[in-house]
Fold this protein.
Amino acid sequence: MAVHEILKMGDARLLRIARPVTEFGTPELKTLIADMFDTMKAANGAGLAAPQIGVDLRVVIFGYDRNPRYPDAPPVPPTVLINPVIEVLDGGLVEGWEGCLSVPGLRGVVARHQRLRYQGLDADGQAIDRIAEGFHARVVQHECDHLDGVLYPMRVRDFSRFGYTSVLFPELDPNADD
Ligand code: NI
């Protein structure tokens, strides 16, 4: 297990369409996932996508006990989601603040689908099929965007609500990033 460097916006590897995983239960895949959790925890993130550590595969992880910016959001258990597919459900779009470990020190408001179903596979190839809403749904959309080369600033529409975390949210722990 190891903490990896997280690529920052501007690195062309963050802009690729990642490749599907075809082999499950392999030591290589398990090492990748363990390293991703180590890297996410070391950076105090709520989620991480494999492209953020330079790995061109459709693998995301996420999970958190409690998010101080969304105190009412129920915790999400540590989740590995491979080759994800998102189906948008009713509920419309909702705006919310996002950050990204690949865009350190900044936050912006992004509109995301309020409710969705996500499906995919875990490290052993077992099916995952969940309904999510609110912050959980936002994290899934943000992480899956990374698999298609999309960083959240590309979805910001109102740049008056995009700026430095330390200025926008001076009360936040400067180490608490997404
Ligand atoms: Ni991100």
Q: What stands out?
A: Residues 109 and 158 are 8 Å apart (CA to CA). The mean pLDDT is 94. The longest strand covers residues 76-88.
